[in-house]
Write a structure and sequence with these properties.
It holds the Pfam family DUF2550. This is DUF2550 domain-containing protein. The chain has 144 residues and is an alpha+beta fold. 28% of the residues lie in helices and 31% in strands. It has a seven-stranded antiparallel β-sheet with strand order 4-3-2-1-7-6-5, covered by helices on one side. Strand 2 and strand 3 form a beta hairpin.
């Protein structure tokens, strides 16, 4: 009897979590989210890629990790401080950890740690347009 109650309780908790997560994912996609893989501390050999959804909210690029129970974004990047330091294709096993056809951008900031963002061609075009549409007078160094 006690085992049945525990199992039913556990199933209810799992159903609530699945419903919440599904609703979060749908809401993010409808809000204009794009599939993006992110890696922070890219110079660390142990850093790995994390899949998520990125959204543009004014002067901020917010990133939500796919497998997260957070209600808010996992990372927030300010347009005014982001600079593209390098651009490359995924190498080796990276190609399996990032969205298909991705380009990897290394972004550096004076206020945050260096990150690498991997995104497909459509998302890349949108990201570069967003980054370059900074207010007049802002200098945007570009990687060659």
């Amino acid at each position: 009897m006690k085992i049945t109650v525990v199992v039913v309780g556990l199933l209810i908790v799992l159903a609530v979590l699945a419903a919440w997560y599904g609703q979060r994912w749908i809401r993010m996609r409808r809000g204009g989210g794009v599939s993006v893989a992110l890696r922070w501390r890219p110079d660390n050999a142990r850093s790995s890629w994390h899949l998520g959804l990125g959204r543009y909210e004014g002067d901020e690029f917010v990133w939500y990790r796919v497998w997260s129970l957070r209600t808010g974004p996992d990372r927030v990047f300010q347009r005014e401080s982001m600079q593209i330091a390098d651009r490359r294709d995924p190498s080796g096993s990276e190609a399996y950890a990032v969205p298909e056809g991705s380009t990897v951008l290394r972004c550096e900031s004076e206020t945050q740690e260096a990150i690498e963002i991997a995104m497909g061609p459509g998302a890349l075009t949108g990201f570069l347009s967003w980054l370059e549409s900074a207010p007049p007078g802002r200098r945007l160094p570009r990687a060659s």
